[in-house]
Amino acid sequence: MRSELDFNLSQVEFFCRVAELGSFTQAASAVGVTRAAVTRAIQRLEARLNVQLLARTTRQVQLTEAGRIYFEQCRQALTLLDQAERDVSGAQSEPSGLVRMSLPTSYGHFRVLPVLGEFRAKYPKVDLDLHVSNRNVDLIAENFDLAVRGRTPPDSGMVARKLEDVDQLIVASPAYLRQRGTPKAVAELDSHDCIRFCLPSTGQAVAWSLRVSDKFVDYMPERGARCYEDILAPVTLARSGFGLAHTYRFLVETELANGSLVEVLETTAGASRPFSIIYPSTRRAPLRLRLLIEFLVERFRR
């Protein structure tokens, strides 16, 4: 027989999941019960507390002011309970289960994917679902555990753990530089073919962040090819002699080493860009997820 405390804890967990996902249906799917079961549990919770926690409409579910206060405190309490269980059981069980991770294409292929074999060797019972794409997934709505993102993460209710700062630079092929000359100042870029990468979400070209007089400025090339979707395309074009490309250093390390690409305007090298792991602050991270996060943070800190 279940105790009253056990029953109330289930109600609280259902409520917190609805608050996180904003949907009774998604919450029911996440915890593996019917929508009716979630609805009844929250109705009983509200009746027991004698307060409305959720404002329901035909299209959305929102927290009331009382619900927001209750959710914040319940989330902390559930986190403490979950941590207590991990503390007493973690040393006696091998990490296992599934982690769903979203990775940007270039950083995924060149930085994260090559080191995941090390993680697998340490934790062979942890499975990974890897979504490698330049589309920014909705972690909560699409049920992802974590994502790796470039740029400084916005304040969106996510926890961010920085992995590393990635240098940016301008490169060109030796053949292009022999034909068109090597630019010595930012102003000279106007007379060169500058290969532009356009964001898939907006179609707008990305400005080149360059250092001028010890300050970073955004330079927007006016001429040159436009590349969409694949950030490796400008590198391939530059290697063929098509023009100058502004890119991440990790994407061209091999080409710089073998001489098929040359760095130009070294003194005005682009700003570094931070890459971070982000994950929902409202979720209690299981051991397998915490281990993967710590592995990646430590791996790229070297």
In short:
With 302 residues, the protein is an alpha/beta fold. 40% of the residues lie in helices and 24% in strands. The longest helix has 25 residues.
Can you walk through the features of this model?
This protein is an alpha/beta fold. The protein has 3 domains: 4-90, Arc Repressor Mutant, subunit A (Orthogonal Bundle); 95-165 and 274-301, Periplasmic binding protein-like II (D-Maltodextrin-Binding Protein, domain 2, 3-Layer(aba) Sandwich), CATH 3.40.190.10; 168-271, Periplasmic binding protein-like II (D-Maltodextrin-Binding Protein, domain 2). 40% of the residues lie in helices and 24% in strands. The strands form 4 sheets. Strands 4-3-5-14-6 form a 5-stranded mixed β-sheet. Strands 11-8-12-7-13 form a 5-stranded mixed β-sheet. A two-stranded antiparallel sheet has the order 1-2. Helix 1 (4-21) crosses helix 2 and helix 2 crosses helix 3. The protein is elongated, with a radius of gyration of 25 Å. The termini are far apart.
